[in-house]
Design goal:
Elements: H1 2-20, E1 22-24, H2 32-46, E2 48-54, H3 58-70, E3 74-87, E4 94-106, H4 110-124
Parallel strand pairs: 1-2
Antiparallel strand pairs: 2-4, 3-4
């Protein structure tokens, strides 16, 4: 019985951890670089980030992921696609929406790149600490 309880507790813990580094991206609510910077912060804290979107926001998720990858900050770990049943408010009938989830992990040189970017910002702001 103890093994079962321990297994259930582990499932709950991993489920909670999974949600802490997940970003539900919208293509209308926030600007693109809000999500890029939030993803960087989540990778600093959790070593990986999951970007998720429905419908028209899928392009935004792909763009965020590509910006992070092209800057050498992230590597793709997993891409999941599916459809979600939703209700069309105007017509009241069920509609399927496309869904994407992209799991990104830190690159080996993520910390160095972030430190260099922070140092560069300090110099631009006139706060060089030598």
């Amino acid at each position: 019985m103890e093994e079962i309880t321990e297994g259930v507790n582990n499932i709950n813990l991993t489920g909670d951890l999974h949600k802490k580094n997940r970003i539900q991206v919208s293509n209308t609510k926030k600007p693109l670089f809000f999500y890029v910077n939030l993803a960087k912060r989540y990778m600093q804290q959790h070593n990986e980030v999951e970007l998720s979107a429905l419908g028209m926001a899928i392009a935004t998720v792909v763009t965020v992921a590509e910006i992070l990858k092209n800057n050498g900050l992230a590597v793709e770990k997993k891409i999941m696609t599916s459809t979600v049943d939703m209700r069309d408010e105007s017509r009241g009938r069920p509609v399927q929406k496309a869904k994407i989830e992209i799991l990104l992990g830190k690159t080996e040189n993520f910390d160095e790149l972030m430190a260099a970017a922070a140092e560069e910002r300090d110099i631009v702001d006139g706060e060089e600490h030598s």
